[in-house]
Design a protein that fits this description.
By secondary structure, the chain is of the alpha+beta class. It has three helices and eight strands, in the order αβββββααβββ. Helix 2 runs antiparallel to helix 3. The two termini are about 30 Å apart.
């Protein structure tokens, strides 16, 4: 019995020794950083870090007034790594191709009953307009860019509770991932 108690206490001590305190987590998140956070109260909120004091981040979302978040209560944390022009160009090209294809098909379908319209429309016209949309979308997407987000690992958190009485020693270990 005593051997199990000693093992449990040693295990719990080792577990809490390797666990990072909440204030030591997420060192990438400093004032001025753009973050996207999730917690039990928030769902994927984008904000700018104004201040950091230990485990507490003072953030501003752009609406309302600044508020505090505790890192230990977050379920997800992502930090912005800036705008990526290549990702923006790819996304813009896809949007441009889709929009121009839809507009071209709609225009040709609407012109079907037209008496003054040129009825000699073929597939090359459709391909030309889709290519034009792809190029236009890529240029706009590259100019605007697309924000890149990087996950910030939140260390597991644990707590240790030891209860002792005259005859027994109780040990409770809580680990959150």
């Amino acid at each position: 019995m005593r051997r199990h108690t000693v093992r449990s206490i040693v295990f719990a001590a080792l577990l809490t020794a390797v666990a990072e305190p909440a204030w030591a987590q997420a060192v990438e998140v400093q004032p001025g950083a753009r973050i996207r956070v999730s917690s039990p109260e928030l769902s994927a909120e984008t904000a700018t870090v104004l201040e950091r004091h230990g485990d507490t981040l003072r953030v501003f979302t752009g609406r309302g007034s600044p508020f505090d978040l505790r890192i230990s209560e977050l379920t997800a944390l992502r930090v912005s790594r800036g705008r990526d022009r290549w990702l923006g160009a790819r996304t813009g090209a896809l949007w441009g191709a889709g929009i121009y294809a839809g507009l071209t098909i709609f225009t040709y379908a609407a012109a079907e009953g037209c008496e003054v319209c040129d009825p000699s429309v073929d597939g090359s016209d459709l391909a030309t307009w889709i290519a034009t949309g792809t190029i236009t979308g890529a240029i706009i997407g590259a100019a605007v860019g697309r924000e890149r987000w990087e996950n910030v690992p939140l260390a597991s958190r644990g707590s240790l509770e030891v209860r002792a009485s005259a005859r027994r020693v109780g040990l409770g270990v809580l680990v959150m991932f």
